[in-house]
From TrEMBL:
NCBIfam families: iron-sulfur cluster assembly accessory protein (TIGR00049)
One Pfam entry name: Fe-S_biosyn
Protein name as catalogued: Iron-sulfur cluster assembly accessory protein
GO molecular function (one): 4 iron, 4 sulfur cluster binding
Protein's GO biological process: iron-sulfur cluster assembly
Matching InterPro entries: ATAP, ATAP_core_dom, FeS_cluster_insertion_CS, HesB-like_dom_sf
Domain of life: Bacteria
Ranges where the Core domain occurs: 9-105
Cleaved signal peptide residues: none
Amino acid sequence: MTLTLPPRVTDRAFARLTEIAADAGNAVALRVGVDGGGCSGFQYDIRLDDPAPDDMVLEKNGQRVVIDQVSLPFLANAEIDFSEDLIGARFVINNPNASSSCGCGISFSM
């Protein structure tokens, strides 16, 4: 699997990170990773974390999204967004590499 284009982060996702940082009183980084598991084979790991030296860092207005090197190929061309709807608010991954995903949107297969 080759990385053709890095993942991109929407303005809405960066805006939500700005809100989180204001509530926390400091800058935060959103870590997006891929782990084995879940009901479809792979699952997203989305959490606030400190960047590691070898992470890819996507940054806008002082807010950062970090992705580890192992997860990058799984997230090629993906879009990291923030969604608010009747079921709640969350960061979501629109991943063109996923051949299927479960109903919760956290687990996928390739």
